[in-house]
Design goal:
heterodimer; A: mainly alpha; B: mainly alpha; three-stranded antiparallel sheet; 18 helices; 49% helix
Chain lengths: 351, 417
């Protein structure tokens, strides 16, 4: 069986083999990703539920485990209502524009040593470019809906994303300076040597700013002014229903996972074991690197949910103030500090 | 040259932060509110007119439905007005029960206010915490009157019946484990008073929980400090009452200034704010909850020690007991007359105002000597406060408008009547 498959495979021409391999890799990345998005919504409802003295979904399947499947089915079967005065083409284009970058960004994420779809040297740049693309989906959705609530939501989110993009970019520049590479795999390898060698310590302010900006970038509480449930109802996607809405939802959650994974890769040593250099290293050598990455990512995702259950929502202008007047100056100052540290070869990070 | 116009937005009537059916036409310059024009009347039920066609007692139920967050307080003002016209005073025990339930109602209202205010500003968890306590308080309502919200418990001349000796317990069910059931019934082993006392012991801890989430939270403060500032002078001119007035720093509370029932016998403080912004009003209301808890506590102690009648024995106004009716012709006649014709009130007029959780709630009653009011005028606090929304909201942002609606503590049953 395996042999026959192998013969068929080697019989294929080179031009077919490469795309087939890439598509297979994409499937291997995307299917677990979409499943984790589905179960992230479930985790969100359960975790926030327990934080709020509720029990969360409980009825569909054992302990509610089939709830995400039921939700997906429901959304698939619902009608996509297009408002009469909306721009049809742009209205339907917007969800595509927002899910596209959210999925494409995963191409450069290293899941383990050498485990990446595209091992490009400009990985970090690629990520920055794609995460800024996501804003077009939101903007176009808000504009094309021809609704005042959606329009306000789009305006808010455009301003917010631009502001936090800058802070985030500066934080990433810090990582770039520390690792000396834009390749995500090399960035992880530059952090080898145990917890204290990871970039979170020398880049502590940048680490915090990166993660908070990430929360803002994904429009999650307490920065969810673009959706602002109690102010502008649902913001940019107020007119969307059925699968069109589901795609926005999917993109938001995929972005959450992306930001969490990136935080783990850039600041917490990606797939590296936290016990490197300790006695436990030998005992835990069997744990695959992907598992460490997963644990770190889940930790960050939990923070996303925790924030949502705890904090009130910022006001739009307060978010702007935080972004422009607090985060950007801090990142710039820390870049200078880091530059000095590199200049004086501060051990052990900038040897 | 295109003409530049402000953005007009319809906020409500179907909006998650509209607290019912508020339709707010907002004129906005970008995110900044230039003018906020509240359109009301979507919940108008002509309560005042309805009352004119019914015997006095039959309108008590309508009062519950005015401000459906503080049911018993509405009843209180109405029965107080009737009692003033009749010239009767309920027994002391009834007065204590009324004060206790007024304060329980205040807790209910303030919990609802805190829950919705917090969720409007984005703090979701406080909402569910508050609802946990409201459940217990609704159980008190249910134990005493049989209804969880619209109780019709206060009657002219007292209250409908005495406090029950047994607190109803949760039944076993396939959805609860035996351990859960035991935990849920832990406080329900004794009488209603035991249950309320247990609640008053737990409640300050719960308030601490809300305060941990909000009071010193930087985001909460950024969203409420300096928002909707009303100066003391302006608060007076706008006819503010209740926590809205006290938030602006004016110490005015009908429970202290014009004590009714037994408020002069219980010990409590009136919190006042300093700056008159949303944050101060928040602090005032939270402190009011602690004070209400204190009053409930004192009432429980007094009610424990002093059994007695809870309603007047004047059967021209209150129905005679069932047993009496079986044997006594006169009692039967009284009962028949009361439940068909009702009682007649001597000609005259009276205004009864109480310190409702939202402010001064007044009933102005004019009687022409018949068995129904000639005219009933309701003075709702929320209607008056809503009138200040435009002034408070001007120059603030859209998100603040939501915080302002929250801080006004308006309920549309009350505004539209």
């Amino acid at each position: 069986m395996v042999n026959t498959l192998f013969t068929i495979w080697s019989g294929l021409p080179q031009d077919v083999q490469i795309p087939a391999l890439i598509i297979a890799k994409i499937v291997v990345i995307l299917v677990p990703l979409l499943l984790s998005v589905a179960y992230l919504t479930f985790a969100e409802r359960k975790i926030i539920g327990y934080m709020q003295l509720r029990i969360g979904p409980q009825r569909v399947g054992p302990h509610g485990w089939l709830q995400p499947i039921a939700d997906t089915l429901k959304l698939l079967l619902k009608e996509i209502v297009i408002p009469g005065k909306a721009n049809r083409f742009l209205f339907l284009l917007a969800p595509v524009l927002s899910i596209g970058p959210a999925l494409a960004a995963w191409a450069v994420i290293p899941f383990g040593r050498g485990m990446t779809l595209a091992n490009v040297d400009a990985g970090l740049l690629f990520l920055l470019a794609l995460t800024s693309m996501g804003i077009y989906g939101v903007l176009i959705a808000g504009w094309a809906s021809n609704s005042k609530y959606a329009f306000l939501g789009a305006m808010r989110s455009a301003a917010q994303m631009v502001a936090y993009e800058i802070a985030m970019g500066f934080a990433l520049v810090g990582v770039l300076m520390a690792s000396g590479s834009l390749n995500l795999g090399k960035i992880v390898l530059a952090q080898q040597g145990g917890i204290l060698h990871w970039f979170w310590l020398p880049l502590l302010p940048l680490f915090f700013i990166y993660f908070i900006s990430g929360v803002a970038e994904t429009n999650r509480a307490p920065f969810d002014v673009a959706e602002g449930e109690s102010e502008i109802v649902a913001g940019f996607h107020v007119e969307y229903s059925g699968m069109a809405f589901a795609i926005f939802f999917l993109a938001e959650y995929a972005n959450m996972i992306l930001i969490s994974t990136l935080a783990a890769v850039l600041f917490l040593g990606g797939w590296l074991s936290p016990f490197e250099g300790t006695i436990l290293q030998g005992y835990l050598a069997w744990v695959p690197g992907t598992a460490w990455l997963l644990i770190k990512t889940v930790g960050f995702l939990f923070l996303f949910l925790w924030f949502r259950a705890t904090f009130p929502r910022y006001r739009y202008d307060q978010i702007m103030r935080l972004g422009w007047k607090v985060f950007i100056p801090i990142t710039i100052v820390w870049l200078f500090v880091e530059g000095a540290a590199i200049l004086f070869h501060l051990q052990p990070w900038f040897a | 040259m295109p003409e530049i116009r402000n953005f007009t937005m319809n906020f409500g009537p179907q909006h998650p932060a509209a607290h019912g059916v508020l339709r707010l036409v907002l004129e906005m310059d970008g995110e900044v509110i230039v003018r906020a024009d509240p359109h009301i009347g979507l919940l108008h039920r002509a309560t005042e007119k309805l009352a004119e066609s019914k015997p006095y007692n039959q309108s008590i139920g309508y009062m519950d439905r005015l401000d459906y967050m503080s049911m018993m307080c509405n009843e209180h003002a109405y029965v107080l007005a009737i009692e003033r016209l009749l010239g009767v005073e309920p027994p002391l025990r009834a007065q204590y029960i009324r004060v206790m339930f007024d304060e329980i109602t205040r807790l209910l209202n303030h919990l609802m206010w805190l829950a919705t205010h917090a969720i409007d500003v984005g703090a979701m968890t406080v909402f569910l915490y508050c609802f946990r306590e409201r459940e217990d308080l609704f159980d008190c309502y249910e134990a005493v009157s049989g209804a969880r919200m619209h109780t019709s418990y206060y009657r002219p001349g007292g209250v409908y019946r005495d406090l029950p000796d047994r607190m109803p317990q949760h039944h076993p069910s396939q959805w609860r484990s035996a351990r859960d059931l035991k935990r849920m019934n832990r406080a329900r082993q004794g009488s209603l008073l035991d249950f309320i006392e247990d609640f008053t012991e737990r409640f300050p801890g719960y308030i601490d929980e809300y305060e941990t989430l909000l009071t010193d939270n930087r985001i909460w403060k950024q969203r409420t400090v300096g928002i909707g500032v009303v100066s003391p002078e302006r608060a007076r001119q706008l006819a503010f009452t209740g926590p809205m007035l006290r938030g602006s720093g004016i110490e005015w509370d009908l429970r202290k200034k014009q004590p009714y029932e037994v408020y002069d016998r219980v010990d409590f403080d009136i919190p006042v704010g300093v700056n008159g912004d949303c944050y101060d009003r928040y602090l005032v209301r939270v402190e009011e909850m602690r004070q209400s808890n204190r009053i409930v506590r004192q009432c429980v102690d007094w009610l424990r020690r002093n059994p007695g009648p809870v309603v007047l024995q004047d059967h021209k106004v209150t129905p005679p007991p069932r047993e009496e009716m079986k044997a006594d012709m006169e009692a039967l006649i009284h009962h028949f007359k009361l439940f068909t014709e009702g009682f007649c009130i001597p000609e005259g007029e009276a205004y009864a105002a109480i310190e409702h959780p939202k402010g001064e709630f007044g009933i102005y009653l004019v009687s022409d000597g018949a068995n129904k009011p000639y005219r009933l005028k309701i003075r709702p606090p929320a209607f008056v406060h809503l009138g200040a929304l435009d002034e408070m909201g001007r120059g603030h942002m859209l998100a603040d408008c939501v915080a302002l609606i929250g801080t006004l503590d308006i309920v549309f049953g009350d505004v539209d009547r």
